Amino acid sequence: MATIMLNFYRAISLLIISTLFVSCANIADLEEPEERREQLISASHMAANELLRHSKGKILPEDTLLASTFVDVNNLAKSSQLGRTVTELVVSKLTQKGYTVKEIKLRKGGGFKVRRNGEFVLSRQIQEISRDFKARFVLTGTYSTSIDFVFLTVRIVRIIDNTIISSHDFAIDMDKNVNYLVNIQNQN
Fold first, then answer.
1. Of the residues 45, 76, 94, 184, which has the maximum number of CB atoms within 10 A of its CB?
2. What range does the domain containing 163 cover?
3. pTM score, whole prediction
4. What's the confidence (pLDDT) of residue 114?
5. Are 140 and 106 in contact, with CB atoms under 8 Å apart?
6. Cα 35-41-43 angle, rounded to 5 deg
7. Is residue 73 in some structural domain?
């Protein structure tokens, strides 16, 4: 009888331990999507904070910044849902910190001119827009994808002389949501 009771207690103990492991695994599965969602938001907000920190006071809250959509570093005429989303998130954090940001939409042939080596110079059109908005700086960014990560660079550039005032690099995991944002085609 003692052997039967001992085996019974062992079976019950294993059942309880198994249930706890499964419950913990299910809780982790529920938390993962929020963690993935927060990755993009927190990394973009941190980038905005780092841009301001690295600017060393050259950009003041009363300065107006223009914001351009972040583009694919391998094709500077192309953006994606990811580029637009990261731009929005960085702009959101800058405005929360009291900066005035005006969004500019870059159209084909307008805004930026790109040199062969990947550098860009601000075109006359962007300088005219900056005068209209009384903006001295432009927020710009690029991204590059790999199998496991998306690498991003964000910059604040002084418009009058194309000087990079502040720059920050960061990477985010290439999970299925980020992959979707990179590869979704516009539905226009």
1. 94
2. 40-183
3. 0.72
4. 46
5. no
6. 95
7. yes
Q: How many domains does the chain have?
A: 1
Taking the C-alpha atoms of residue 123 and residue 11, their distance in angstroms, rounded to an integer, is: 75
The yes-or-no verdict on residue 12 having pLDDT over 70 is: no
- State pLDDT tens for residues 153-174: 999 999 888 899 999 999 999 9
For residues 125 and 110, the answer to whether their CB atoms sit within 8 Å is: yes
Residue 121 placed within a domain = yes
Which residues, listed in sequence order, are joined to residue 66 by a DSSP beta bridge?
102, 138
Q: In 3-state terms, what secondary structure has residue 31?
A: helix
CB atoms within 10 A of CB 167: 17
b (16+ CB within 10 A) / e for 133-150: eebbbbbbbbbebeeeeb
The single residue listed with the structure tokens 């982790």 is 28
- Residue showing tokens 């001992």: 6
27 falls within a domain: no
